[in-house]
Amino acid sequence: MIHSKLQTLLWFLERPQLYRELMGRIVKQVFPRSFKPQDRQQEMLLWCGERYLDTSRVLQQLTGLESVTPLADLFPDTWQNATQRQESCPVNMGGAGNLELLYGCAEYLQALRVIETGVAYGWSSFALLLSLHNRPGGQLISTDMPYPKRNNDPYVGCVVPESLRSNWHLIRCADRQGLPQALKLVEQIDLCHYDSDKSYEGRMWAYPLLWEALRPGGFFISDDIGDNVAFRDFAAQVQGDPIVVGQDGKYMGILVKP
Ligand SMILES: C[S@@+](CC[C@H](N)C(=O)[O-])C[C@H]1O[C@@H](n2cnc3c(N)ncnc32)[C@H](O)[C@@H]1O
User: Fold this and answer.
1) What is the residue with the minimal CA distance to atom 1 of ligand 1?
2) How far apart are CA 61 and CA 228, in angstroms?
3) Does the residue 89 lie in any domain?
4) Is the minimum distance from the CB of 97 to ligand 1 under 6 angstroms?
5) Is 221 helix (H, G, I), strand (E, B) or coil?
6) Which mutation among 177, 195, 199, 251 tests ligand 1's pocket best, with the greatest number of atoms within 8 A of CB?
7) Which of 139, 138, 101, 94 is nearest to 119 (CA)?
8) pTM, entire model
9) What is the CATH number for 115?
10) Does the Cβ of 157 fall within 6 Å of ligand 1?
11) Is residue 28 part of a domain?
């Protein structure tokens, strides 16, 4: 336990751009009572379970799209290239988000400015860039802090091919530093995808910043909302009408800005 904490500390110490994130984590460890988890996960899973729809229903409701074509069929060569890039990556960085949903939303909005938090292999970046790439000036700004102790820094975003990278700005920082930097680069965004710090406090810190930057009619999308009640609380705060997408036992949340 102590050995593992020491390794995490060393990992952070080797990365000066993450010192502020480290300080935040130390404060949490020293004053745990001030950061009582508000997860209430069972309650949130019930809430999601009662209202979720599948991807095709949600895309139809939001965009009018009648059927969902997998990205692998829409872009077979680029898809294969990305898959090969993942296969040759020596580090496991977990699964991808709902790529057809992200692509479909970006296409419907004809998005020009998108912010996402959390990159890992870069599958969500890949899906968004496939859409943004079609529009002159299309820009994706992504923020990501690598997984502590996995030494995956050089591989973050590795599935994104060179041909899509001119529309991409990757900020390699924790949310607390990276998100303010990302927001300085754009005045308004058409779409955001939150998929980084999954804690209640992390979400409740970042969600309002993204919401504030979203244009009227823009889509706010958050991954893994079943982890805690943050998405539900935030939807109530902004008086939004939450849409829940269920896929493979996981839930994504969407709010459309009025
Ligand atoms: C689930 S993965 C992202 C997957 C990606 N969005 C996709 O769908 O392909 C989460 C990523 O967020 C990063 N992350 C976790 N906490 C973070 C934080 N506080 N700030 C920035 N990135 C963070 C993780 O290291 C990981 O790279």
Assistant:
1) 195
2) 26
3) yes
4) yes
5) strand
6) 195
7) 94
8) 0.96
9) 3.40.50.150
10) no
11) no
**Domain interval for residue 195:** 37-256
* Domain count across the chain: 1
Per-residue pLDDT of the chain (258 residues; tens, 9 = 90+): 788 999 999 999 999 999 999 999 999 888 877 766 678 999 999 999 999 999 999 999 999 999 999 999 999 999 999 999 999 999 999 989 899 999 999 999 999 999 999 999 999 999 999 999 999 999 999 999 999 999 999 999 999 999 999 999 999 999 999 999 999 999 999 999 999 999 999 999 999 999 999 999 999 999 999 999 999 999 999 999 999 999 988 999 999 999
CA dist 238 and 211 (Å) reads 9
Residue at token pair 């609380």: 233
In a domain, 11, yes or no: no
Ligand 1 closest atom vs CA 202: 19
Cβ burial 148-159 (10 Å sphere, 16+ → b, else e): beeebeebbbbb
Residue type, 62: L
Cβ of 174 closer than 6 Å to ligand 1, yes or no, is yes
Determine, yes or no, domain membership for 30.
Answer: no
